[in-house]
Every structure is written in structure tokens, then in C-alpha cells.
Specification:
It is a single chain. By secondary structure, this protein is mainly β. Helix content is about 5%, strand content about 45%. The chain contains 1 helix and 48 strands. Strands 21, 22, 23, 24, 25, 26, 27 and 28 form an 8-stranded mixed β-sheet that branches. Strands 39, 40, 41, 42, 43, 44, 45 and 46 form an 8-stranded mixed β-sheet that branches. A hairpin with a 2-residue loop joins strand 36 and strand 37. It starts with a helix and ends in a 12-residue tail after the last strand.
Amino acid sequence: MKKGLSNSLFSIFLFTVIFLFSSSKVMSQTAGEDCSTAILVPVAASLGTCSYTTVTSGTTQNGPNALCSDVTGNVPNDDRWLKFVAPNTGNKIVITTQAGTVNDWAMEVWSGCVGSGTVKKCSDDVNAAMPEISLCQNEYVAGQTYYVRAWTYSLTATGTMNLCVYQATQCIVPPVNDNCIDAIRLTVNPPLACPGSSQVYSTQYATSTSFSATCDATTKNDVWFVFNTGSLADINMTISPGTAVGLKAELVFDCAGVEIGCYNPANGSYLFSGLNPSADYNIRVWSTAATPGTFNICLSDICSNPTATISGSASICPLQSANLNVAFTGVAPYTFVYSNGTTNTSVTTSSNPYTLVVTPSVATTYSIVSMTDATCSGTGSGSATISITTPQPVSLNAFNPVCASVSQVTLSGGSPIGGVYSGTGVTNGIFSPSAGTQTITYTVTYAPGCTRNNSQIITVRPTPTATISGPSTICLGQDALLSVSFVGTAPFVYTYSNGTTSTQFTTSNNPNSFSVTPTLLGNTTYTGISLVDANCAGSVSGSAIVTVNNCNVCGTPATVSAGVDKVSCNGVGVSIIGTIGGSATTATWTGGA
């Protein structure tokens, strides 16, 4: 009996251990047991539309001890994780709970999981022993996921509760610059930028401070600003109420509240003068406590220390004008007085830079005497000297005619040196005869806009040509008559070749006939080699073929007779009959009409 009882007890013990181990393994994988498996909870539009989620206590602690509750409640040994996505409505978010089987819980809201997020708020015993957390519209980011960690207060209790996340009316949130330490930094704008560059702020929901003000003894629900003087000693404040009633302002040196000026009412422009350079000053603004609202405020420099600088020295010809440059700093319009060493002249302009046109008759130096911009007086600087250059006459020698066959001609003959040649067909002082006869101009620049020039015509002569012709058939030892036609100006020097020997002659005849006596039987080709007319070298073309036969094998020598002479009276035609003989086969009549 004891043995059997012992075996039974061991079996029960073993089953219990296995069951507990299995149960622990299953629970560790339950949704919400840690942050990575957090249960998504919807965000209801209001408390009345809440659909509560049942939350069951966890089995282990998954995160650090809590920041709220006591030494018992701040140990989340059975925490459960949930999550929600913050809406973009700008409302307050409330995470509320109701008791379930356990009526005492604690809760945290995290910005992310442990390791990457931080605790935003912790709650215990808000609704009786149940927690509740509110996130105002300035305490969360729309669209971001937030995590809720809930656990039972007791270290031993297990059970459930109910949880809902819903939206409520926006929190009353003080302005971001409600305290001096959180003052909004204002920019000091250029002169005259205010009120155009004013910014709108509000005293709505501002809280009161204990600092007194000499211009107002009432409660001051104030907001704060800070600015730095930089290099400025005087700064202008422009302030005006919007919806705020009874607007007042105070200039203080840092948050200690040392008053420099107090303005009641604050509506207009106020000069802060004698300020320390590169120092921070605070502006405190408030309205009647019962009528908070919006207001406009703007800071600006009262004088930007404007300047006018003149430049643009140049040389000009007599009676010409020169452009000087006047550059400004400051706020337009600008008025400046300049001097030519004898007379002062005033000019007002909004152009920056400004082009000052001067026409001195002698060398003159110009300088700025004084200047002002739209806000205050400034300083002038710089100088510009205009010198007068008297140009020399420009000459250009006549050009020799050039041949069209020349590829390029370097131009010369201009005086004084340093000028530039221009015209059709001219590039960098080189003329291309392919452009034909042109007018060439030589220009010398003595100063910007001060030039003198001279021109000459360059004549381009056409390229002469020679064309040879005159094919012929002769007997060995006879002469053949060839012809060459020219285009150009006589005399012509023409060189031709028979393929072996070159022959040159000079003639003024056009066309010109010349005889050749080939010494070889068969064909001999005559071609032109070169041509030079009275002006230029030319080109040659054409060819003449002379065929030489051996007349000893032609048979009887050729004979020809024109017949007897006849006389025509009174224009009456007569018939003449010629004859040929021997090896002749054809004859041609020449002469007569």
C-alpha cells in the first residue's frame, strides 16, 4: 500500500511539474506579455463611445520598476503591454480603466518599447484604486505609436481589468513662452521693416508671474521674448493689440526682471536706446487678465549705418561720357552728394547700384561728399578719376592687289601700331582672298568708346585659265596645228608638255595657235602644265591628241585640185568643182562666202 501510494504521489507531482512548465511556455508567448507583442487598442472619439478592452495580468515582469506608486505597486511583476496610435485631431488623449476581477492596478505610457522609448507618464489610484493617464495635445505626436504598460498593485494578485483609450476636449495649454526661461527669440529686422515683418503671438492661457512693473500694478498673465542687440545700441519695437485688450509691455534686462522701460498701453512704436552691444534683453507682454488674446510685435534697427561707395575710373575721348558706379548699403531711397572737385551735385535714387553718367572736359576726380538713406545719415567713400585721351590720326597704306589663288594674306600697313583690322574675310589680321574684293578697316582704340579708323580697298584678281585643244592626224614629219584659249590679262606665259618634254611660250594672242611636230608614230597627247598671266598664276585644262601615220604605207600620196578659176557677175552664183586623188579621201572648202 505504501509503495503504491508513493508511486501515485510521484505521478501526480510529475504531471503537475510538466503542466506548470507547459503553461509557463504558452503564457510567455501570449499577446501583450512584452512590448514587442503589445495588443493594439483603438482610440474612441469620446468616453461615451468607448469599447473597453479586457486586460489580463501577465506572468512576468518585462521592463524596469515603475516611477510611481509605492514599493509594492512599483514592481510590475505581472505587467501586460498594449499600444495605440495617436490621432491627428489635436484633442487630449485619455487612457482610462475600470476594475475587473482585480480592482487595484497601476499603469505607464511609453513613447516606445523598453530600450528605445521612455516613460511619458505613470499613474496609480486616480479612479479609486484604478489608474488613469491623460496626454494633452502638446504631449504627443500625431501618428506615433504609444505603449501602455499595466500591472496589478499586489505582487500576488492575478486577474483582469478593463481599459479604453478615448479623445477629450483639448487641454488648456499655456503659451510656449509663458515663462522667461522659455522666451521666444525675436529677430531684429532692418530699418523700416516693421510693422510689415510683425509676428502674431497670444496671451491666451498665459500664467501670472511675481515680477512687478512700474506701469501696471495688476496681475500679469504674461508671455516673454528675448533679443540680442548685436552691434546695435538703438532698437525700435512696434507692438499693437489684436484681440487682446489692455496690452502692456516691459523691457527688462534678463530674467532677473531689472526694468528698463514700461509701456502702458503698448500700442505703437517705442525706441530702446543706449543698449549694451551683443547683449540679451527680454520683453514681457501681458493684457488685462480677463481679456487675453492676440497681439503683433516686431523689432527693427533704427539706422543701418548706410554707405555710398563710388568707383569706375576710366579714360575717354574729348566730349564723350563715362559711367561711374555708386553702390549703397541701407534702405532705399538713397540721397547722395558727389563732387567733381569744383561743384557739388545731389542725386536721389532707389537703384542699387546707381549708374552716374559724367561728361568732363578735363581730367576730373569724383568723390562722395555725403549720403543718407530712408532712415538716417551715412558715410561716403571711394573715388573715380576720368582722364581725357586725345587720339592720334590713324592711317592705312594702300593694299597691293592679290590673286584669288592665294590662300591667305597677312594684313599690314596700319598706323599707329596696336590697332585691329576688320572687314569681310578678315580673321585675326588675316584676309582670305576667297571673299573677293573687299574694304578693309584699321581701327585703333584709345579708350573705351574712343576710337579712330581708316579704310582701304583690297582688290582680288581672278585666277587666269588656259585650255588647250586641237586634235589632229598627220603623216610622220608633218606639223600639227594646236590652239590654246586664255582667260586673264595678257601677256600669257604658257607651258605645255607632250608627256616627255615641256615647252614654254609667251603670247598676247588669245586664242593662240602653235605648231608641234611629233617624232613618234601613233598618238601623242599635249597637255598644259602651268599658266601665268600679267598678274597671277593660273590653272590649265584640256588636252590635244595628235595621231601620226607612216605615209609610206598609205599608197599614192594624196593630191587635191580646186579646178579652174571662175568669175561671178552681178552676184550670180557659179559652180566650181574640185578633185582629189592619190590617197586623199576627203577635202574641205575654205574661204569665200
